[in-house]
Every structure is written in structure tokens, then in C-alpha cells.
Amino acid sequence: MTDTVVSPGTEAAPATTAPAYDPRLTNEDLAPLKNQTWGTYNIFAFWMSDVHSVGGYVTAGSLFALGLHSWQVLVALVVGITIVYGLCNLVAKPSQITGVPYPVICRSAFGVLGANIPAIIRGLIAVAWYGIQTFLASAALDVVLIKLFPGLAPYAVVEDYGFVGLSALGWGSFLLLWVLQAAVFWRGMESIRKFIDFCGPAVYVVMFVLCGYLIWKAGWSAIDLNLGAVTLSGWEAVPVMLGAIALVVSYFSGPMLNFGDFSRYGRSFAAVKRGNLLGLPLNFLVFSLLVVITAGLTLPVYGELITDPVATVARIDNTFAIVLGALTFSIATIGINIVANFISPAFDFSNVDPQRISWRAGGMIAAVGSVLITPWNLYNNPEVIHYTLETLCAFIGPLFGVLIADYYLVRKQRVIVDDLFTMAKTGTYWYRKGYNPAAVLATAIGATVAVFPVLTSGDITGMYTAAQYSWFIGCALGLVSYYLLATRGPLRLPAPETR
Which residues contact 345 (CB under 8 A, 6 or more apart)? Predict the structure, then answer.
């Protein structure tokens, strides 16, 4: 077998499947891409779709209400998003160079069969968040529908018109967005690329118009970058700033891990890095400033602080503006949901049984699962939300750490692509019956230690603070544990081959 060389092309082309590739590990969706066509703008638009959402709006705005000075919040934002930028470049390279998605590149670390472990973990997490994001978008749509059609208000009451915890109106909005997302996904990756190319800029236009409208109503003198009272200064502000930095990294932990599924389409690694630079540090900072100005102006204009952009739009006394704004934010949420929580589980579930589960079938499994978990019930309890976020990060961190340690520290950036698709016992990534015990053990160590503070945050002193850093704890332990296990002791791997 020889190393597969992936050459960037100018036109979309199907994946390359070598005759020796085992069908139990291969289909057209998982095989190395023949041509990689995404340029800097496509990667930039990908991050705009991730950032420009209702969740991103609320997250960015909330940092300005931590009792910090505006400059301290901005420093935390810049540091946090710069960390995300660097980590995304790290996870992007192996998939961009080889042209394969995350579950396939994971075969290098976990083994050709062991890669199903991180794939299933990531897939289940994405299914949960796919459902939650769809529910959030449908709840926003409910607000606007009631604003436009007051007669629908009774159907939004769960006690009167409800089923398994969701109102009749909620079911209608949820299923409508569910179908729209599935339709965009079903059309394929090229249609998704065009969709996200549109979503991010569209939200920017609406955000600037909304901000301009509020400035016109309140005046320039009403702009205030501090959404809350400044109560912290000096060294007492440092822990809060560190927590804010951790929050930014944690918020992007899912898209960071998933990024290989998209960087594989990049024309070159340089184009991917340029897109990351534009889409993360620069774009996120501008968007954060836009968010805080807009949210801050709701106080003088409406008499209360509103951190939900859809609720802000619903206050405007213009039906066309309400509809346009609501549709734009709904489209944006569809964009981030497809990018962050639909495409990745599609690859993950397809990786489990490539011949029976295509990429599209994997995506539909995720879509159906997102309804069965009834995400509105998960999101009704603030404590469940708190645990869900930190538990998610506790498991994502080790997966990230193991992948980075394997590619950069153990493999020295060398991957034999053809061996990712063979079940031969002589294959580089066969390890022990298709599993690499070092990667599995390192993941278990990192996740166990990282989730412990989350589960005990209400019982043991100091665990509440530690839980905020669950991603960092899991990532660091996963990386260090894997490196030590893979380079020494009974689970030590042979020196990387060059073929």
C-alpha cells in the first residue's frame, strides 16, 4: 500500500476509493476527497454561521454582565477566541492534508475499529444539541408567530394544548424547522456550503440594521459597553476573566472537534488558516461589540435589558421588520445547527457501518434521535443545562487531546492514508484487533477526571470552579496520558512508518 496524495482541485469531485479499501471501512462519503475546493471565504462563512446565532449572541452579551470593566471583557474575549483559533488550526491540518473526516482520521489514534468509540460519543452529543438548538429556534419562532397572530396564543400553553411537554404551537414550529434543516442537509455538501455562505453575512446585515435602529431611537450617547454594574477590579477580577476565557473556549469546543469534517474540503491548509483568522478573532470581536451595543440600547429604548435578539426584534412596531428579523435569526440557527450538530453525526454514524449507513442516512438517524430525546424537557431545567454543558466538555476535551497528541507528538504529522481503510492485521492502525488500548485508556482517564468536578460541584468545595474548566482538564489529561502510554510501557506504539 502507498500513501495517498490528496491534490487540491478547482471543481467538486467524488471521493477517491482505492481497490484495496475494505468495504467495512469505506464508502464515498468517508473516503479521501479527490478534489478539495473550499477557499478562505468558505471557511470564513463557516465560522460566521457558528458565531452568528441566538446562542452566540447571548453568550457574548453575558460576558459583559460579569461585573468586569468593558476592557477586561474584551481582553477575555480576544484571549479566548485566539485560543480557539490556534486549536482549530491544530485539528484542521490532519483532515485537510488527508481529505478525510474526523471519524476516519481518528482511526490513526484509536484503531480502524476503535475509532467508532469517539465517533459514537461525538455523535450522541451532537444529536442532543441538534435537538436543543432546533427547540431554541422554534421557541423564538413561537414568539414572533404570536406577535403576528395573537389568536395562536392559547395553543402555546402546554397545559391546554400539549403533548410530552411541548405545546401544539411549539410542535408546529419545531417540526417546521426540523423539516427545513433536513431538506438543506439532504441536498448535499455543496448546497450546505452555499447555505452557510449566505447565513453569516445575512445575520450581519440584520444585526447592523437592528443596531442602527436602536441608536436612532436612543441616540449615540446611550451606548454603554457595560451591560452590568462594574463590581470587580484589580486581582479579584482575574478569576472571573479566566472563567470568561474558559466559557468562550467551552462554547466552541464542539465546533473545534468537528472542524476536521469541514477543513477536509479546504483547498490548502493556508486557505483554512486564513479563513479561521477572519472567522474567529476578527469576526468574533466585531460581532461581540455589535451584540453588546445592541443589547445595551434595549435598556433606554424598551426600559429593560433584552439579551435575546428575537425578543428585541419582536418589540419593533413594524410587521415587516419583525418577520424579516425573525426569519433571519431562524435561518442563522438552521445554519449553525447543520454545521455544528448535523453533519458531524452523519459522518459518525456512517463510520460505524459504511455500507449500510450512508452520510445522508447517518444524518437522518441524528435528526430522528433529536426528536425522540424531547430536547424541550432537557432545556426546561437550568441545572440540567449547567450539567449538560460541562459534561459535554468533559468528554470532548479528551477526544481532542488524544487526536492532537497522536498526530503531532506520536505520529510526527505522518499518516498512511491507505492504512486507514484496511482491516489487514499488518495495517499500521490495526493495533490489537482494530483497537488502540492507549487511546481508549487515555480517553477514559481524561473524561473520568474531568467529569468528576461536574458531578460533585454541589457537594465538594472548589469543584464548582473546577467544573468550569472541564474541557481544559479533559483535554490536558487526554493528551498527556496518551503521549505517555503510546511512547513507553506495555502499550507503547512502534515508531511511525514512512511509506
Answer: 122, 123, 124, 126, 127, 130, 362, 363, 365, 366
- Cell numbers placing 163: 403533548
Residue with cell 505522518: 414
Average pLDDT, integer, range 11-34: 75
Q: How far apart are the first and last CA of the chain?
A: 8
Does some domain include residue 493?
no
Instruction: State the Rg of the chain over Cα.
Output: 23
3-state percent helix, strand, coil for the chain, nearest multiple of 5: 70, 0, 30
H-helix or E-strand containing 166? strand 166-167
The amino acid at 400:
F
Domain that holds residue 112: 41-487
Q: Is residue 364 part of a domain?
A: yes
Q: Are 98 and 412 in contact (CB under 8 A)?
A: no
Q: Is residue 6 part of a domain?
A: no
Tens of pLDDT, residue by residue over 127-177, are: 887 888 788 778 778 877 887 888 999 999 888 888 888 999 999 999 998
Please tell me the pTM assigned to this model.
Answer: 0.85
d(CA 335, CA 316): 25
Classify the phi-psi angles of 192: left when phi > 0, otherwise alpha if psi is within -120 to 50, otherwise beta.
alpha
Task: For residue 316, tell me if it sits in a domain.
Answer: yes
Cα–Cα distance for residue pair 370/418, rounded to 1 Å:
34
Q: What mean pLDDT is predicted for residues 202-206?
A: 82
Return the amino acid letter for 317: D
Work out how many domains the chain is built from and give that number: 1
